[in-house]
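Hi L.,

You mentioned the student needs an example of a multi-chain input paired with its predicted structure. This one should do, with 817 residues in total across all chains.
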Amino acid sequence: MNPALWYLLLHTTRNQWRVRIARLKNPRYAIALVLGVLYFWFLYFRPRSGASGANVGPTVDATLVALAPLLLVLYAAWVWIFGRDRSALAFSQAEVSMLFPAPLTRRSLIGFKLLKAQVPILISGIFWVAIMRNGRTALPHTLRYLGLYVVMTTLVLHRTGAALVTANALEHRARGVRRTVVSLVVFAAVFGTIAWACWNAYPAFDAGLKEGAKALANALQRAPASIAMYPFNVALALIFATNSAEWLRAMGPALALLALHVWWVLRTDSAFEESAVAASLVLAKRIEAMRTRQGAAAPISAKAAKRSLPLAPTGAPAVAIVWKNTLWLMRSGALRGVFLPALILLVTLVVLRGQPQVLAAMMIVAGGGISAMLVLFGPMTLRNDLRSDLLHLPMLKTMPMRGREVVLAQVASGAIPLAVAQYLTMLVAFAGAFASGGAEIAAKAPLDVAIAVALGAPLLLLGLNGVNFVIHNAIALLFPAWVKLGEHGAGGVEAMGQMMMTMIAVLLCLALSLVLPAAAGAVLFFAFKAQVAVATAVCVVGAGAALVAECYGLAALLGGAFERVEPSQVG
Amino acid sequence: MIDVRDFTKNYGTFTATNAISFTVSPGEVLGLVGPNGAGKTTTLRAIAGIIAPSAGSISICGHDIQTSGPKAKQALAFIPDEPQLFDYLTVEEHLRFVARLYNVADAEQRLGPILDELELTDKRRNLPTELSRGMKQKLAIACGLLHDPQALVLDEPLTGLDPAGMRRMRATIAARARAGASVILSSHQLTLVEELCTKLFVIRHGRCVAYGTLAEIVGTHPELVGRSLEEVFLALTGESGAGSGQ
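Structure written out for the whole complex:
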């Protein structure tokens, strides 16, 4: 590679770290870093009992090991089928302006791009080693790290190669397809063969999950599927190696695979500049958006832009904000994330319809668990409120509305869709449980009580999410420096620490805000306890009403703060 | 009418504007001029309700911007120098959004003409990320004008516009004033100010340096008689223009 590119890479990396370290003078980043490091240490690095390398033995089920490469297959298929992931090719605007017109070969530019990707690989390798150290193997950590490094580099190369091939085919149509025909044929043959084997094994799932998995593992180990699976098995053999001898045996084919990928990517460079410039433009728009405080919004596709909702020109102005924020959800894809659990439960219900006992338990656990998780993590996905709109504070402040109306509209924008998603998840789960569990479930939870919960739940969920979103918005409005404003959160260890602090604050506030509604619900339940179904309904509705009232009161208070806040305090 | 009384804005110990007062009657166009950092944007942002005065009051059509914010803002449009647009709304959706905010009952009839006027009809389904800087500025202007505001506050409105767009924008501002709107125009383009403004408010270091028609201002400074607006501006603000040799 050209020495100038080496210089650029080394100095850019050094200066990035210098800036990060200098940032630690700010207490916010320093505390966040400490918390982030503690979090990672607790999760991945803390000493655990029984994790010594001496305790060697096969701990992973053979079927699981046989099926694990399918995850890599899915990843690779995703990269190819939805292979418009141009970020694999993106250069910064400065790089495009200075490197593309410079007398450098395409290959040296690709080499530079690939070398740049090494830094995150080297860092994430450490975390993967920490995650995998409980596998109870005799393989030294350094060898594990080297193995992971080879596999991850191969994956990055595969992603870049797939992006180049698909960009070529999409942009140059017939000519592009002709140029990359070998790659496309190999892709089709490999994935087609594996898909065919999976399809043939599918009927075995009628006999149960275990039998189905075994049949699938067997199908993948027979030719021609085993040939198609070979590269994926090669990659994972290195990761699953339990001792140095196994690792050494796996390393040879893995390095060959890596070399093949290097050769392939460097050869598939004909559409590189055009694709890279297009990808870089998208990246530049994101960066520009961040710099101009417009939010780090991901560019949306023309198809997504067509998703719309009607809006009457007259009526409460606050509805316009809810409408705008709902379009944000629809177009950014964030809405899919919270409605997906309900859909997955529904699919599970259909797939496992033959196993009522498993299904009933699974539905209740999954339904309750997912709904609870959505309470905690839903607001982090649905950031279509002040956490995004504070970047447009000057515009919001000119709107002809009271502060409390603005805050309520922002809170409703996230709380309503999340409540609907939770309600649907619970409905699917409990309907599934009742349908499959029959008398056993009915004995534990009578139908009239279940109906009472189902009737009261919408208000309860609305109030609960309302209060939750008010808290998130309050933190963003009152402590904007502690929250990453915009569509996405930040990355890095400090960001993790910052997220933890926000999470702790949210949980504390949420716990406090639940005290009165819970007390109200309990009082109402005991007042009507003679009839359990009625008492349940009154309890749920009463607690829900208290939460809604609390949400309104808090939003009104926050409205006052909104009217007082100025752009200089947020920026 | 826009009425600013003893408006003061402090940021800690720094005073951005110090007890400035002026009135813009219906049909008037006030040119707010001053060097960089004089307090123009602070004044405009306070009039728009974005920041609160530390002292003094601001009213729009008789409604105090602080105590009757929604009523005052209903009559106002603020067009900033940097267009503030939502990434996820198309051009047309921005206008529909604004229509609902300001309860524009005949929005459907107004959309077509305003999109035509600002040459945005072909771009009505485009997102802001697909628009040029000038187009974004036009969209921000369209959003400001849709509800037919009685008070119009413009901060460098011609930034990013092409020559035809600039001409149209000048005509639009003049037409709005003739229709009875009170207009405040802040710009460093003194030819634009000279062409459109009926009164001037010259601000420096947060204080009023001169206020009135150009003739009135020159009348109080006999040494400025016969000089161009640019020379008057530089003399009033104590700036020495490049190449002036002073």
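You could point out the following to them. The beta strands of chain B are 2-11, 14-24, 29-33, 55-60, 63-64, 76-79, 151-155, 182-186, 199-204, 207-212. The interface with chain A takes residues 11, 45, 48-52, 69-71, 73-74, 76, 78, 80, 82, 84-90, 93, 96-97, 99-108, 125, 127, 129 of chain B (CB under 8 Å).

Best wishes,
N.
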